[in-house]
Amino acid sequence: MEHSLLLVSRVFSFILVCIDIFWFSIANNEKDEKDEKDEKEKIQKWLNAPDCAMNFQAADDKRTEGTGQWILNDPEYIKWKQSPSTLWIQGKAGSGKTILL
What we know:
Blueprint: H1 2-47, H2 53-62, H3 75-82, H4 97-100
């Protein structure tokens, strides 16, 4: 009888350890899934196109009447306007290309 009781006690202890391991595994798995989801969201946010509205608004606020009018008489612009495609405006950083828009 004592031997049976000891065996039942050991089996019960083993079952409790298995339950603890199972719950720990579930908790870790949920944490891992949340971490993985957070990481995916960070990467997706990083890959998304930037919101250009603020930059456009800042450039538009700096624009004054008559800005960029000279380009309308430029031969390259006139040539482009006759058969529009991509218009490439090249210039040094800070030279005002954005404000021409």
